[in-house]
Structures
1.
Amino acid sequence: MGNVVRAAAHDHGATSSDLAPLDWAADPFAGQPARDARWLRPGAHTVVGGHAIPDGMIYLGRRLAAARGGRVEPALIDPDLELAPRCPGTGGKDLGYWPSYDRIPPESRAAYLHWLADGRRAPGVPIGYVFLFFYGLERRLLHDIMADPSLRAEVPLLAAEVQGLLEAYGTHASFRRYATEFSHLLELVGAPDETPSDAFAVPELREPRWPPPMTLRRALGAFATEGRRLPATWALAWAWYHPDISLRTPAFRCRDEFARLFTVRYADAHGEGLLVEPGQRRLCVEYQPASAGLRPMRYGRDVPDLYLADEPRRQLAELVGRVTDDLGAYSRWLRRHDHRLDTIAAAALLPAELVVDAEGQALDPEVAALQGWIEGRLTGASSTTVDAGALIARWPTAAAGAMTRREAAALCRLLGHLGIGLEPDVRMGGPVPTAGQAAVVFRTDVDVPPVAGENYAAAVTFAQLAAAVLAADSQLGEDQRRQVSELACAALPLDAGERLRLGAHLHWLATSAQCSLTVLRRRLDGLSGTLRAKIGELLVTTATAGGTVLPHHVTSLLRSYRRLGLDPDTVPNRVHASLTTPSAMSSRSAIVPASARAPVTAAPASAPAGLPAPAPVAVPGPVRMPTPLPANEPVTVQAGGAAVGEYLLPRRPSAEPAVPAPDPARVPAPDPLALVPLDNAAIEAKLAETATVSTLLHGIFADDEPAEGDAAGATENEPDNDAENEPGNDAGDLASTHAGRCDNVSGGVELVPGLDAPHSALLRALAERPAWPKDAFDALAVGLGLLPAGALDLLNEAALDAADEPLTAGEDVLEIDDDVLQELLGETA
């Protein structure tokens, strides 16, 4: 019964009815004359039954018992046995589980001899014929060569033959397993007693990974014996074929990148390589023959066997895990894009070691072209502004001339590999670069974090609000940028990379439109109350740094405090305290530019109506800031910028009586209607337009009413996010097709759970494209009778309920998350 179980491991084409245990006790040659069989060496020629067999490697003759005793050797070709006279069949169904030449029918014997005469490589033959020949190779090694070491010269010839059979018939799993293990045994038997490590060739990374190449096991032993460090190529082969190291999909899907990255990381971690101890374990092979005429055997050599050593396995497994993780995004991209490698978008997902060489030069030609374009704009400078549209044109975007948030993140990631930073950076919470606006590229000589930490997020939020305060006078200048940067770095713990990026962000704020309220609110959502309070303090310090606070500064501070969730009623007291408290003045002077700390004079004034003009007072020099006063005393405001002689100062109080002020009751109030002519028709038209807009806006912002006074400043210094950003793209054409399909959305639309018919129709229309320009989406929503902003919010809320992720990302271009979309559509009623 044991033979039955063992034979099932390699099915040679028989059916279960052919299965029968062999009688090993009987003598197959009892009563027959002695006629010895012989082995035909490789290259020998013979003819059997009219079949010319050109290359030997067979047992031919009579009276050759199986090595384990009892019956005839299965591989023996007995020329006296009957052969079919006509063209033999090749079905192979009558071969049995353990084919033996003396037991198969005459037709099968003739077909087997024909296969041998044809060169032993003909495709499509029953695998039983291949096994029958293979039995003879096993017997030659395990029985003849093991008993007579002088025959070892044949081992390389046997190994070459087995390799040829594997190439021809290796798709058969059972034969591949037996032949592979047999080839490893041949290698170990034929190896010299001592082989230097330099004599071995690194095995290729192939599948299946088991059994491991014998060359690998022998080479590892040689490195340990010689005390040499293990090179990266051998470590990679060891990790690849180790049975206890799990290789995930990226290792197979992007095998070349896996090997390159492993080699680089191995050198970083282990220098010249691991140094392994020989240990006590010796190289040994246990071989279970395919032939039923041979017994299992064990063969070993005095070579250290490190293949399963525990400590090297642990180190290699950790390295393989890190390398595989870093190739995960690239591997998924290859799956989604049909293994396309010739694109800059794919390179953006690779680790930096596979993008640039040791000198920081791009390895891919397309990436090198982008790197050269940016270097040409920097021209040795640390940072510069570029046209965002020109940068977008060098990226394979889904929509012409516009980037999605995901594409912008990939661009920033690739530039980071090249030692270049970009502002705005969507990974840090910034908006998507838009054609027609400016972007800032800057060199990153230090590590710049790819994601915003809490302190950096607070610093950028402060920078955006401070820019709104300072830019109320004019464009944000270099001194003001330095002032904001120094304040942020002094108050918040930022590392060198974060300080570098903050400077670039301020540069971008000074040369482009301010960030939208959407970006600001997204940043504010992640800030703690403590950091919000810190930003509020820094804004007051910024506004009062020059010793002057104008009304529009206070207005910006009030608006910023409301956005921060702070009490705006505290702003006047905070400003007053900052201007008058000695400690606050001292801290301001440390960051205020020298020009702002120059002596100041009072503002020029004209005499009020009804009062005599004060006489000019000669002043020998500019009036300097007075000695700090208590916080409840008046302060001096408005730094002077003109010549001193042009200013009028009131006389000092004297004993002379003051001129009485006019009685307000006697001064007639002006009539406003008499000052401005009114157009009643225009007023009525404006009121009608206002009513229409108010109705639309109420549906959008009903759940998010802005604080009092915030609506007026919501668009201050902000870009129009609904402006058309895709030249040549007709949004109306893009939407009209879908709008025309949904004239009767209440009747024939398959509903999505949680959505009504118009919103279900909108969701299905969005599924036809991976990205939608904002104006195209708006036109599509309007065509379905929906308010665009409200419809987008509703779809994203439904996506959050179903998949914990929003459906869309981006502002000017809405990028559709395909996984979330499928989650929504997969739940259709």
Note: DSSP finds 32 helices and 13 strands in the chain.
2.
Amino acid sequence: MALSCFLALGDFSASAAPAPAASIRAELSGVVTDASGAAVPNATVSIETLSGKKVASTVTDASGHYRLEIVGQLDPHYREKVTAQGFRTAVEENLSLSDNVNRVHDVHLNVGSATDAVTVNAYETTGNGEIGTVAQAGILGTLSKQDLPFSVSSYTSQLVLDQQAQTVSDVLRNEVGIQESNGRYSENQYVTLRGFVLPVGQSLINGIPGLVDQRSPSIENIDRIEIFKGPSSFLNGASAYGAVAGTVNMVTKHAGDTPYYRVDGGYSSATEKEGHLDMGRRFLPQNALGVRLTLGGRMGKTPVDNQEENVGAGGLGVDYRAQKFHANVDISDQARSMLGFRDAIYVYPGFDVPKAPKMTSNIFDHSSSYTHHQQMALAQGGYDFNDRFQMYGSYGYAHELESYQGPGVAYLIDAQGDVIAQDLTFTSDIHTNVARLGTRLSTNTGPIHHDITLAGDYLQIGSAYAYEYGDTHDTNIYNPVALAPLVTRIAGLKGVPDTGLNRLSSIALADVATALHGKLTVIGGLRGQWIGVKNYGSIARGANNTPDFIPCTDSCSYNQGKASPSVAAMYHLPKGLSVYGNYIQDLQQGPTAPIGATNVNQVFAPYVATQKEVGAKYEHRSLEATLAIYEIGKPNGVLNPVTNVYGITGKQRNRGLEFTLAGNIVRSIRVNGGLSLLDARQRGTGDSTTDGQRAQGIPGTQSTVNAEWTVPRLKSLFLDARVTASSRQSVDTANTQSIPAWARLDIGGRYDFETKVPISLRVNLDNVTGNNYYESSLLGLGYAAPRTVRASAGVRF
């Protein structure tokens, strides 16, 4: 079995060098249609290299079909242009082609002037450009999802615009099997994926870990959000806080060859206002230098009672590309403040969970105050020594400060909805350094082609945390009462030593071997990982409200390493069908006892998680489907509701089946969604009341269906709907308490005015029926989003 090597703690794809040039004979064919799906005859379709060298050109026939053949020593990435009278020119960057492969690529044109170009970055599979066809796969680089022997999804910034998404969680809601675990209007974004918690704040950015806002990362400067399902440290390196559920990677925006200027403004029924500016263009000969600037923010009352938020974010992306060298620098700044934050509610045992209150209700009022500020800088680059050997590297730094005071932990104590809320003062200072260096060699052994990657990563996170519990208050989920605000808080942490230090490093060697003219791909590799954790002590309130450092004296550190093998394979069958399988063994950092536990912040030793997965993928024109069957096992972390102690009790074994479908099912209707069936069980707990029971907060069935319809006689009018459903979930590990099944309907629409200056109007109605329900019980009772109307307008210059 051949191997391709890469050495990385995270995804190296953004910094990895592009694939080498090769002598290819490829075909590109498809159908050109308008927004309603009607054929566009006599459209000119041309292909050129990214440097502007024209390769081939043709004209569509009466049924809108075209076919191009590309032969020669050419790069495997191109720019496609499609022009037709009465339509805006469609430009697609970074279109990938493969040897002896006929790629089917349909193009959809919008009404307008041919001088107004619509540029995209080769991520679309559906006519509206919301679903990505490529994803960064760590040591494997950026590849088509259909060529990856793993379950991967990808959503573009077009979806963010069309759905008026405000957070990463809003985007992830489109993915089957994902639901928010902590409630929609919390300061923390947590979701569940494949039956495990996935902290959104642990997402990668351009494949690099540790650099996004650890609570609620901004999507202002994000071009694509990718979801890699299941353990992925072989590809992406060890996560600072564990990533058994999977990995979210956010790809930053950079300037395309066509200048881009866009302004958007929005308003919600809760009087929250928002605005966005996005502009980019390229400079120098051959458009070598690109600059992309994004600014945005929102402020005002949210749909939740007694809650206000102010969010501001900005990003700057600068990139340079030459024949052998490429580099990019990304800088971002995000500030957020919130009054009346609403978190999940813990549940005492011994009674039936009462029905959910109104989703606008909030047991916390303005007495709870939260602020957060995060800054990040990331530099990446690569150099191609020749067609066979490349080197790449990256360095990133992030710093974030946060503080909270007010009722911060709540416990539901009876079936009448009574709650005990406890005051919490919390502040933190976190600084992160991450570095990566890798090499890639392409070679052949007979008829087998190898991409061998060797790479190494280092991630260091230093943190100073201070927290203190205070008084308790009685309230009720149905009739919240005013809570007295705190009048004291721990002062800033400037000059106070770190309370903890995490160091994670890894070396990976991997081989991607392809044979049978690209039909067979076998991936094998080994990653050595080392995780070190030091607990220096804690910070408490001292005299005059100042921080008082208390050194750690017992079980203050650990270091552990392990070499983890992984193997995966994919075989492409005729007519767009392929089958795949993978086995991944991951070393993950142990969990940390959460706030609310008696042993809060206790760090547990690293553990090994394993995934076995088999599946099939299908692609035909703009339609793609994936069927996956998997099993994941990991040690089980549980908060004991009686002792309030968080600990490791046995193992959680999840077995599941996922089916996803995305693309055009008929000319004017596009869908994205699927079905997830999951059996999550506790094993070896040593307790007859929990052993063999379903894992807490994990539904057995989940489904999500998004549909968009282009109104035939109004080709600029788009109507959409999304239905999400979940089966019942247990609230405790013994399965004696539960929350009921739920379903939710969201609808929306937009109208694109195809004028010289294109204007888009959008309206969305979330939770149409005003359904009151708990969305999740994994981290406590997580409130769903209430019925909310959102409207926005955008102008592109």
Note: The helical segments are 157-163, 168-172, 233-236.
3.
Amino acid sequence: MRAPIHLRFRPGLVIFVDETGQHICTQFMSLLQRTKPGSVLCQGMTLLQLDTQKRTATRLPLTRPLEQAQISTAEARPFELLVTHTLQEIQSNQLITGITRAGYPVPDSRAQIYIVGDPTHSPLAQVQQALQAQLQRTNNHSFICSMLRTQLEAPLNLALPTHFCYLYQGNSIQPQQAFLSEDETCYAIAEALFTLLLTSITTEPFFMEMIRGGTNPATPIVVGSLSTSLVLSPRETIQDYCALRLGRDLLEQWRRGLQETPIATSRREELQTGARGFAKTLTHWLEDSQKRPLTNTTHGLHWSMHPHQRPEHLAPSLDGLRSTPPSQLPNSEDTARLHSQLSEQEQALFACFWPEAVQYAFTHQPGVAMNWSELVACRAKKAPERYNAWNASATLAWQAMSTLINTSLQQITTETSQVDETGLHLAMLYIDEFAAQVAQLERRCLAWQSVHQRGYNETMHTFAARVGLPQATPAALEEPPQADKQPSSGLTTEETEIAQRLGERLTRREARVPSPAAQALIALPFLIAVLITLPLLYPISILANIIAGVSTATFLAHGLFHYQRQQAVRVARSDLLDFHRLAYVHRCELREDELRTKLIQELQDRVHDLRKRLHDLAPCFVTLRDQFSEQAERLQQELYNSPAGSRDVLVVNGELLQRGSSNTLEEIVEQVNKMRTLAPVQSWHQTLPAIQQHFLRTLTATGQSLPTSNQDNLRRQLIAFAREIIQPYCSGEMTELGPALTKDDAWREAFTQARKLLYQPGPGMSEQSVTFVCGRERELQRNALHIPDDAYPVYLPETHPWLIIATFSRGNLLTAEESYARTYTHAHHDDSSNSA
């Protein structure tokens, strides 16, 4: 083993040209995802995607997390300007100082530039010329290399006066000719580029001398290749595969609980009883069960009409708002305060027509006094404003009630689904029964609406008859309630006419009430006549008794007359107040019917959606289970059949990862399940039902549940949850690289892959090769016996848990004309030999 190459770094700029370059860039990004190099190193390299037709380039920033980086997401800019700006950034003193302080010495801050593409499909010579001209203008002496993917039979247009040209053709030459696919060739280029950028090879002086050629078309071009093989444990892939298998098992367990596990009759009846109890509670909250404030009097229209059946004006209690703490209604106002505010606004509305309040206002009028009709008319003008205030409070209160009911239903469903492995089935039974109860509640709401409308119609007919109007009910108020159509805050035309006539009726009756003076004047002539006439008719002994009797009878008759007229006034006043009060009672009832109808409709939609989701869970679980199986199979195929799977060496449990014999992915899944069962990191990791319960609680903590989560969201959350469980079991010795490096198998396989040449040297071309073994210092020193004497160990940071073996092959120096002629001739010579 030669002298080691210590940890160093050199900035790099990669220019991926056109479609081929983009394909290689995709492979390069996949490598970064698998190996996860430090962010400090990513800051020192920049990737550009060049479109030669538009002469614009886009930058792929690697300073942010790699999983957020995507090709061609940045704004396209002119190529020359972007190159200048990028080189200034990665060669800035601030960046170089930061990289050095992070433990990566930078002996040469000049960036090494790589032009990556296919010379048979893209004008790479023009790209190089434009790049070289821009560097000369900015007095930049960066080192330029080209990495070319070509076909063996195609003329190699090596007229790229770069310092060195890495060639990659569609075949590997040694130990035997084996053709590579386009993906395999692109991956080989990407891995070579990864090695050059993230190891210290390019900082070694002897290596730079080997690849140093000319940048003038007349000067020789140095050609060669870098063949690599990466040795690593595919921890991310193993974790993803095991997580998919665990997710599949959880989904199958849920499906069985829904479709195959029977529910005892007693438990079924218990659930149905609970659903009926909750529906009964909702009915109590929503039905008209409490007295409406300041609307029920001991006299008036209905009391006089039905003395033996005193009706009461009732309103919904909405008791749930008073008994529920605000913590159960997030982002909501204090529900108790909403309930209290609604009651206060309702009292303020009906105080306008409450007899005691009106009488007090009548007897304490300041200034010019108004008669009773005028006072009521004045107070009636304030009623629409107070009704609007009540309406706003009622709307908020019913919205809070709707939120409360939905939250309670969600909570009950969630708690039921978390009981045991049959929880989802139990929740489905509960919702089925509750849906039937809500349908009954809807029918009761329709009956309440009919009662309200019928009572209003009777009221209108009665008052219309009392004032001598045709007995017709306004058509607008006979329409069924609609949640988006609110009743008017003021009186309708018909109601206004009835109120006006009631006021006139009251005024007429008030005018008919005689004053005491008028009654005295009427009674005085009669009494005088009696006093004159009676002495002539009766003896003096009984005259006094007769006069007293006549006088008393006269006063009683006048008092009775006055009382009858005053009573008629009181009835007229009561009728006027009752009418106004009943008109707004009906408006409140109508609005409450609308809000109640809206709440029931929303609840039915919610229950229908929840019921549908619960019944669709089993097919959903089957679909997701199959998706997880397909994704796991696809992941396995990509691991084994991808270019990385054929070129790189994958190790796990200190052995080579196999496909069909031993140490396979299936065995790793069994190993992880065994560790999870026998030595769980968390106690709830041990069984699938416990894991299911914890997942459901996790969903609940985020305000979600299985029935409310859509399929895509559930798939993402379940994979993330399963991966979090699997992660501690897919670590340690299972995914450590060190145990595998103590055995010959991994080294032999890696050296075999790395020594395969990826380009065809021309006839008469001498070949030089150098081997580099890049890994962590402790692992290279511990396994020095496996490293050939002529290989150079290259130290990597301790944060890089992978090893890469690279074989650098270098041809002799050629001019551009010679390279074209010799490569073309050699290609045809091979064709002639084959045909012979």
Note: Residues 540-641 form the longest helix (102 residues).
4.
Amino acid sequence: MLYNYFKIAFRNLRKYKLFSFINIFGLASGMMICLLALIDIKGSFDYDNFHPHPERTYRLLTDVISKNNDRMAFATAPLPLADVLKKDYDFVEGATHFIRAYGEFDDGRKRLQPMTFWVDADFFRVFGYPIISGTAATAPQTAVLTKSMAEKFFGKANPIGKVIQYDGAGAFTVTGIIDNTTLGRSHQKFDMLLSAQSLKSEALIDWKNHQEGYTYILLKPGITQETFEKSLASVAARTTKIIQNTKINSYHFRAQALSAIAPAHEELIRGTYEPTYGKLATEMGVGLLTLLLAVFNYINLTLARSLSRAREVGIRKVVGGLRWQVMAQFMAESVILSLLGLALAFVGLKMVEPMVFVQRWLIGGVKWGWETGLLFVVFSIVAGLLAGWVPARILSNFEPAQVLRSHTGLKVIRGISLRKSLIVVQFAVSLLAMITLYVLDRQQTYMAEGDYGFVRQQVLTIPLLPDQPYEKLASAIDQQAGVAHVAATSALFGSHPDNQWAYRQRDKNDSTLIDYFSINHELIPALGLKLLAGENLKPTDASKNQVIINEEALKGFGLGTAKEAIGKTILLTDNREVSVAGVVKNFNYASFVWALKPLMLQYQPAQFRFLNVTITAGSTTTIAAIEKVWKQLYPYEPFAGQWYNDYLLDRHSHDDDNNFLGVLTAIAFSIACMGLLGMVTYNTETRTKEVGIRKVMGAAVHQIIWSLSWDFVRLLLIASAIAIPLGYLAGMAILLNFSYHVSIGIETFGPCLALLFFIGGLTIGLQTYRSAIANPVKALRSE
């Protein structure tokens, strides 16, 4: 019996090739997204399973109880906790810290900001990351690098024994290369590890500081988590008197098993890089929504062919076939389609697998096996059964006479059939996705090309080498023809600036957090910044005690007008007292994500990291001359100059993410258009005689096209009416994350609607045109 089901199913697939292709392609597209989500879900449960003793390793969490009895859960813990546990409890086999180290590192040639952590000797034993070459960083002033970071610093040269300078902490010798990627996924991500024996921080003995770093404990075999948490409760009770202050009432420590870190059950403050259940649910939701659009096609096309299969259903029932047997026939067809779609989905999966977004956020580091393949097959069969259940239930319940009386089948609302409703949903979802993606793309373009308030056309940015005085290079470049200004800065505008607390009074009751850049006197004219009052900084040591502030700083410090602020003093956290030399007009020096904040421009040559070279328009040979100067001064270092416009574009355009989102939108549109094509094709086939009669009676081609197309055009209009307000809400939800953003209006909806009606109109028009120009004699000769 099963053999007959599948035999008839394959015959029907061959008979209706277009409908079969549409269904297989749609199911394959939806399943490809679902497969990506399933792989990520599998990988999320495989986090940290490669460590030596994951069943005995725990991360310590801290619940901070405020005076109001509010609870805040932190992934971090006070650093002294590890030493207390290791000293007072003999069931603790190992204890280690994982403490973030911020700042720049340089090897004398280039300056980088790797993701760096302080670790102690127990870290390498507890987590067991393999050392590819060399030894672990257990001695003071030593470090280990990942292979990728070692190549960024030293290229193909052997990094062992090389020295890296860390601002404020001295020189660190590279002792080894560590592998943190090939074994599997981990909630810990790092590029460099430093020996904690060189860490000098009050947080190591400060119980009140619970946010400085992560603490991990390795228990001896046989010790249960319940026993461990009783000890943690005892330690928390002992620390209550130490940590009580105006804000914190008490601590509560929890042990989180390494295997329970991912997927995350709760949102932790200072969390690491484990995926959350919300992220996984969102991914699977997108995949299921895409698959649902394909299922709509299957339901649509199957119900559309209900009239042609009425005799089949009737004959089956006449010869004694039961309803479940008729349902089984249709379900078998849907399962076959689903399995064929799975094969095509796997091909699509391999095509998108190399995409950066897919590797970074979805399947990177996940190990596949036969279990994954079996999961795919089971998912495909279940998807096929669910897709076939609705049409199988409806068609198996039809009486032939009922089907002959109605070509539209079930009614959802007055005048709109189930099939038409599904087409509306498909195009509404596709248009919603397009509007959302277009809003995101317009915002990214605005952040790259918008008006920041400073000149960036014809400005070349050049990174300075570490420990090299900028004056020599700046002077040599300034002598080249076509160079208007050579300015030095600690960072480029459009990036994240440094900040510090500043005060007007020494009692420090009027503190203001202020962003700052170090600049020389050339920057203001080079970038066209406007001084509202005062004067520019001078290239002298006297200027080190002078600053230029923006209008927001005037308000923050209460300095009155721009002219009134000149000469007034500000006290910085390093006990420097500086005077206001000038006030500059507000400009966007960071990102459009944040509103303008107080800004201070100071002259600190030791902090210079970039040159900004303004080149006069029409100077065609200036770039080559600057490169030649660079090669003369630094013959072994590559020239890394970049136009300011290109820097902002690279920083704010996320092409990898947009490309993948574009693929999702294209898939949704393709599914909708193929479903529409199938419905239009079936509609024109069933109205062949009607078209022939209209032509014989004198109807023009365009009248026939309009008669055949209007019902489908109306569906596109309804879908647009649904998607536009939803798209507006979705777009505004994205734009609310930016202080400065684009607007949503006709400039957003117009291109999206134009593309929708162009593709939809093309799909409808070509098929109806073919039907309209057909010879009526062929349609009517059998009458």
Note: The two ends are 40 Å apart (CA to CA).
